[in-house]
Amino acid sequence: xxxxxxxxxxxxxxxxxxxxxxxxxxxxxxxxxxxxxxxxxxxxxxxxxxxxxxxxxxxxxxxxxxxxxxxxxxxxxxxxxxxxxxxxxxxxxxxxxxxxxxxxxxxxxxxxxxxxxxxxxxxxxxxxxxxxxxxxxxxxxxxxxxxxxxxxxxxxxxxxxxxxxxxxxxxxxxxxxxxxxxxxxxxxxxxxxxxxxxxxxxxxxxxxxxxxxxxxxxxxxxxxxxxxxxxxxxxxxxxxxxxxxxxx
Length: 248
Fold this sequence. Notes:
Blueprint: H1 2-45, E1 47-51, H2 60-67, E2 73-79, H3 93-96, E3 102-107, H4 110-120, E4 140-143, H5 148-213, H6 238-245
Antiparallel strand pairs: 1-3, 1-4, 2-3
C-alpha cells in the first residue's frame, strides 16, 4: 500500500511539473509573439534616408554624431567604393581618400527622417572649419516605404550578382588559359616534327654525298701485245674446233 501511494504521489508530481512546463512554454511563446508585434510596429514607424555620396574621411561614427542632433538614429550602413568599376587614371586624390561611397541611415521616426532629408539636402555640412568635409554638401534623400529589411535583401542580391559575375570571369579566364596552353603544346609538337624532318633530310643528304664521293677501282688485266705491236687474239686449237663442229 505504501509503495502504491508513493508511486501515485510521484505520478501526480510529474503531471503537475509537465503542466507547469507547458504553461511556461505557452507563456514564452505569447511573450515572443508580443515582442515580435512590438518590433514590427516600431519598424513601421522607422524611416530610412539614403546618402548618395559620403565625403572623404567621414565614417559611421562621425555621421552618427552629426545626424543624431536632428533625431534618434537606429542603424547606419556605409558601403565602401567599388574601385574595380572605376577607371584608375580618372581617380582623383579625393576619391582615394574616400572611405565610403554611399550609405543608409535609419531614424526611429519616419517623419523625422523625412524632415531631416528635406532640410539638409543640398546644404553645407559645416561643423568645425578644421574638418575635411566642412565645405562638402549633403546628398541625402528620404526613401518612402523603404525598410531596413529591403536594404539587407538588396545587399544580398548585389553580393550574389557580384559573386556570379566573378565566377563567370574566372571561368572565361580558365578557358582562355586552357586554349592558350593547348596551342602552345601544339606549336611545340609541330616544332619537334619539323626538327625531326630537318634532321632526317640532313642525314639523307650526307649519305648521298658520301656515296657520290666513293669511287671504286677494279684491277684490269693487261692486253697481250704481239711482236708486231698489235694485240693478238687468242686462237682456238683445232682439237677444240673439231669437238664443237664435229669435224673428222
